[in-house]
Structures are given as structure tokens and as C-alpha cells.
Amino acid sequence: MKQKLQIAKYFVGDIISVSLAWFLFNLFRYHLLNIQYSFGSLSGYLNSSKIIEGQIIFPCIFLFIFYLSGYYNHPFLKSRLGEFFTTFLSTLLCTFIVFFVALLNDQSHVYTSYKLILGLFGILFTCVYTCRAIITQRATFRIHNRIWGFNTLIIGAGKKAQNLVYELNHMQKSMGYKIIGYVRTDDQQECISSDLPIFTFSELPEKIKEFSIEELIIAQEHHNRKNMHKLINSLYPLGLPIQIEASEYEMLTSRIKLSNIYGTPFIDISICSLSDCQKNIKRLLDVILSVLALIILSPLFLFLAIKIKTGSKGPVIFKQQRIGYRRKEFTLYKFRTMVNNAEKNGPALSNENDSRITPFGHVMRKYRLDELPQFWNVIKGDMSIVGPRPERKYFIDQLIRRAPYYSLLHQVRPGITSWGMVKFGYARNIDEMIKRLKYEILYLENMSLLVDLKIIIYTVKTVLTGKGI
């Protein structure tokens, strides 16, 4: 609730700031261009239809760009330097968009253009950054002085957990963690004695609701990577930030982003390395491209539906439960390529000579046409166009036993296509799924919009050449 309220404060502050900035810029513009003769007076200028339209339209454009910048993603304990540069770059982009869309015809020579650009940028940046800095300063002051705090559970109940709690509670400037209690993990033999309650792991979902928990911090006694991945995997479905202390080994081998330099550095292992800006742009592009794909490919959808229905008995669309972002289960949609009730004897992976696949199913798999309905999954938010391939719980349980690091894939939405599908293709057994997994982990470590574009290009090539099997 605190997080939503803080985001609302920034959003309302930005609405007021950009509206004021645009109004002040129009006053600056009126006097700079000396256009009194065109409107008779300042009130005539401000009440003109174009100025009123601009007062509504351009602040909306500014707010959209601010959203894409990722500024609203994490409302607490913002880096002052990061806030400055995010505001600087987003207002600079807004300035150039407005200049080329609406102001280019205002200038009579280059000198006037520079004045318009600098005037708009100076006013917009000053208004927006001043308002944001005030809101951030108030929130940071309250957090550092323990007026505000985020209800937190420590996953672990040993000496290491106790020392961590002591350190957090005795910091000169609080990091905002209000420790509610400890959670004893299933493999923990000994527990500390503490004034704080100690819960069992099975009680965790119940206690999260009871105490409105907002953060989880892992403080395991023994750093066993296999057990750690299993623990993380069990925490993902709770939908909360999962913090872990950055050890020296992780400092050397992980991409760690620290925005707060006070006290113990933590890594949030529930999120990927993609920047907030790229996350928002990726999601926007996913929705736009998926909507366009469903519209443009609708004739193909109709053709495929007729061929499937006339080729074999059963539904056109095949539905199956898959595990996605933060281990949340969702219904995946595909064009049916197998005979009806193909898995009546239990879950089984397909292969090239699988007798369960229909003749037309082979054609669809070859060109990956069976995956097309998943654009609807993307619009719903279950999936992304590019991301690790979603699997069923039945196979994930087997994968995690042999490759516990599979749990890291749940940091992101699964995709229609992936680096693993491009480089390896369909897997016919658990061994091949583990081989394909290395490409998915590589994708996770190198996520960017450019990498996504490359994967899409290779996927289109695969579809056009019919190398889907």
C-alpha cells in the first residue's frame, strides 16, 4: 500500500509539474517570439485553441515518456544521482519531441530555435526535478529515521540471521527494513533464541498476509548453491522482493546494481538485470506487436483452424498449464498439433517421429505456426515475445533436481521464442532440456532489447526456412 501511495505522489507531482512547466513555457514563448500582434493580448494567446490543446496533449506525452523511463517502478530509496540523470534525460527527450512536433515552425532563425529548446528544457527540468526531489527527500528522511519501514521477514533462524538483524537495527541510517521475525527453513537444525517470533517455512504464506510483509531477506547459515536455488524457487510464487547479502564470490561473478551505499549491500534476486526503462519499453513493444500480429495474421488463423478441424478430431486450440513469471501457473494456448487426448498415459515430450502428431501438425511444428495463439498470452501478461521457454511443473520438478539454477528463469516472463529455441530447438528429453537451459541462462545474463531483436530475426528466419524441428 505504501508503495502504491508513493507512486501516486510522484505521478500527481509530475502532472502538476509538467502542466505548470508547459504554462510557463507558453508565457516565455509569447514574449520571446513577440507575437502580441497575432492574438491581441496575452489572455487571447493563452485562450487560443492551439494553446489549450497543447496544455492537455503535451503533458500527457511527457507523463508517458516518464513512465517509459522507469521512474515509477521503484518509488523508495531512490538514488539522488540516478533520479537527477533519469529526469535530465527524460525531460531532454520531451523537449526535442515537442520542438520537432510543434515548435519547429515558430523559429525564424537558428538563434530563436536555441532559445526555444533551452527555454523549454530549463523550465521543464526545473519544475519536474524540484517536485521529485522534494518528494524523494521527504520519503528518504522518514525511512532513514525509522518513521517509515517495510515489514520484513528473515529467511533463516541461525546465528547469521541474528547478526544481520542486529546490524540492520543498529545502522545510523535505516535501510527501511522493519524486521517482523525469522523463518526457519526445512533443512535448519538449530535456531537462535530471540525476542522476535520464529515461524516455520510452511507458515510463510499465512504470515505474509497476517503481517503485510513487503520484503524477504535470505540469511542462510551455510552457503550451499544447490539448496539456495531450491529455496529461491520456493519463494518466487510469493511475489515479493527477495534480497540476499552480496558475498565476495557474488561480487565477482554477478551483475550487481547498488543504488544505496549505506550499510549491508543486498541483491534483489527476484528481478533480472534489465533496466527499468528497458523493461517498460519491452512490455510496451510486446503488447503493440502482439496486437498487430493477431490482426494481420487473422486470415492465417482462420485457415489453420479449418485445416486442424477437418484434419482430425478435437479442439482447434490446445490449452496446457505452464509455469511462468515468479512460478505463477498460467494457461498457454497453442494450435493443436497432436491427436486428441495425446497424453492420456501421462506427460511426455514429443519427438520428430512421434506418432501422436497429426500430418498437418508436423507442418505447423516445422514452421512454428502452432505457437501463434501465444500472442494472446503476451497481451494478457503471461508471456513476452522473447523469453525462456515455459515448461510444465512435471518437467520443471525434474529439471530443478538436476539443475537447480533453472529457478533463475522465473525472474522474467517466459517467451514465445527464446535463445534456447533458436540455438537448440525442441527438446525430446530431460537431458536435452538441460542442454538447452544453458542458452536460456545466457539470455538471462545478457538481456537487452538488442538481443531480443536478434532472437526475433533468427526466429523469423527459422519460420521462413522451415527449420522448426
Automatic annotation (TrEMBL):
It is a multi-pass membrane protein. The keyword Acyltransferase does not apply. GO terms for molecular function: phosphotransferase activity, for other substituted phosphate groups. The chain crosses the membrane at residues 12-32, 52-72, 84-104, 116-135, 284-306. One of its GO terms (cellular component) is membrane. Keywords: Membrane, Transferase, Transmembrane, Transmembrane helix. It is found in: Membrane. InterPro entries: Bact_transf, EPS_sugar_tfrase. Residues 282-464 form the Bacterial sugar transferase domain. Belongs to the bacterial sugar transferase family. NCBIfam families: EPS_sugtrans (TIGR03025). This is Exopolysaccharide biosynthesis polyprenyl glycosylphosphotransferase. It comes from Coprobacter fastidiosus NSB1 = JCM 33896.
